Amino acid sequence: MMKTSSSRKIARSPVAQLGLFAEASNLAIKQPLCKNVDRQAIEIALSIIAAETWPPRYKMHKYWGRKPANVVSRYIEFFSRPGDVVLDPFMGSGVTVIEGARLQRRAMGFDLNPFAVHLTGAMLNPPTVPDFEAAANLVVDEVERAVRHLFLTDCDACGLKATVRSIGYLNDEMQEVRYSCPQCGRSGTRPSNAKDVELAAVREQVPSDAPDEDILFGWEMQKLRRRGVKRWSELFTHRNFLAAAHLRRAILKVRDDNCRNWLLLSLTASLAQFTRMIADFSGDAGGPSWKINCYWMPQKWQELNPIWYFQNRVAKSLQSLCDLRENGAPFVLGRVEKQDSRKMPLEDESVDYIFTDPPYGGEGIQYGELSLLWCLWLSEHQDLSSEIAFNPYRQLTQEHYASGLEHVFAECFRVLKPGKWMTVTFANKDPVVWDALMNACRNAGFSLLTAAPMKRSAPSLTETNMHTAPKADLVLSFEKPATGQFPTLKTNSHGNYSLDSSVHRIVKALQGASMNVTAHDVFDRVTVDWFSWFYENGARPNAVQPTLTNVESAMAVLGIPVTTTNEKHSTSTPKRKVPTDAA
Ligand SMILES: C[S@@+](CC[C@H](N)C(=O)[O-])C[C@H]1O[C@@H](n2cnc3c(N)ncnc32)[C@H](O)[C@@H]1O
Ligand SMILES: [Zn+2]
Question: Which of 46, 49, 346, 565 has the most Cβ atoms closer than 10 angstroms to its Cβ?
């Protein structure tokens, strides 16, 4: 008993956390710290947890903006103990739930998006490997019988029939055919011929249960609207739609629930590859996939063979399955629910730790819209009006977004036990969006404990080479004060925040600790400093939000040489403008 309470005390001290983070990151803390140290010393000591690529258990399906499992686990391990209730009210692809259960926590996840619930629910209920393999083989055999004849071409090497792997198009004009020949074992690429064009024009009866409906023209569908695409089926070529419909039909016949759910996810995971959204970039790393977070139809695109790519996805799902089973969790500890987290079905003070990653507002990812195609094929209905998002195409205003966050964080405060912690990851370049987050956490009653930047090891395509990427992902840890204590705002709230003096302090401190002083190092810490100052002063964050560019300018004014590094900063939100043509 004694032991428990003393270890709790250590965990409560921000200073102890810094020690732990530093130790885990093999960073030596140069000096002992105490709670009263100046913020700059804390920032110096804060190690930055570099995100690692996702373990194979997450390979089975894409989800936009998925958080790195190693960072999530590190926080869960630090802030909670086995048996504790850990909650994520914006669960997404379930990293908190899966990692929490793996770490023996009673992990709970809520999400409004039925796709997120389907995905995480399936991960918590994995079929056995032999059952999954057997079911996948039956499905592939059935679909091959139905549509294989539509994906054949002549092999240049042996003259026999080869399997089409993909066909390059420029708009509607077929260009070259890539094939693999099962007869002679060769693979090749050659210009398409008349027979290829003729085969692509064949029309066959599509199964009557093939999912289709009118497209709702939200933010992410504008590019389709401009191309005159009105129904989801129009994203596919005829034969690919046919093949996808046969796959779905065959999967729905699988009797074992877990196998069926996993196969449905193998289908939704490869669905984008069956559409005209796959750009034909030569030499593009990472294989043909849906890389940008909107629906679009590039002019130069590829028609991929659905059976081939479904089988590839099944192979990835098998890797996830093996990983989950080998490094697995007592899955009974995980619980997921389709739930609007503005009102949570939980008792007051029943949760030990919250780790969450709220929607980022502003130009942030449109989770609901981007899941529409997947949900259509899973026959899941989405309640898009309750989504916490900013979306001028669907009348989701900034006020709707801010009030949504207020409600969810008030609920988080209610369900969290007093004296316990909540970690929130966040990024944005818009001070108005930061203001919404700060207000929501502050008004709920949370005290800011620490803030740390998070870096990604592998930036996505849209993040690459964005030297001026204006933001880092912040990992913010808050405390629900023990009963009766409420966070007090600082009295000096009338002063102005100065980016230059923040840069100055941080550079001095980094130099004093003989640490790197690159623009990126300074930028990371200034971002933390900026957030902390505004949160604690109760002030509305203003336009001096740090960007790499203005941090570099401030360093130049101070006469500090700006070193460029190859590091890339995480920018989880897409680079695009708020539209002026929204309805
Ligand atoms: C930033 S994402 C979470 C991503 C997650 N961290 C991951 O690693 O996959 C935010 C999530 O909030 C969900 N969401 C939006 N409004 C919601 C609401 N009212 N209640 C519950 N979840 C909501 C979205 O569907 C989305 O999955
Ligand atoms: Zn051949």
Answer: 46
Report whether residue 131 contacts ligand 1, using a CB cutoff of 6 Å.
no
DSSP lists the bridge partners of residue 173 as: 170
Ion ligand 2 neighbours, Cβ < 5 Å: 155, 157-158, 181, 183-184
Answer yes or no: is the C-beta of 111 below 6 A from any ligand 1 atom. Answer: yes
**β-pairing, 473-479 with 173-180?**
unpaired
For the entire predicted model, the pTM comes to 0.87
Residues of the chain with pLDDT under 50: 1-46, 457-470, 493, 565-583
Task: Give the torsion sign (CA, 494, 495, 499, 504).
Answer: negative
CB 44 within 8 A of CB 18: no
Q: What is the DSSP string of 290-301?
A: --SSS----SEE
The pair phi, psi for residue 409, each rounded to 5°, is -70, -25
Length of the chain equals 583
Q: Is the CB of 62 under 6 A from ligand 1?
A: no
Q: Is the CB of 357 under 6 A from ligand 1?
A: yes
Give the tens place of pLDDT for each residue, 295-337: 999 999 999 999 999 999 999 999 999 999 987 667 888 999 9
Report d(CA 100, CA 87) in Å as an integer: 9
CATH numbers and ranges of domains, the chain: 22-125+329-485 (3.40.50.150), 129-319 (no CATH)
CB 19 within 8 A of CB 34: no
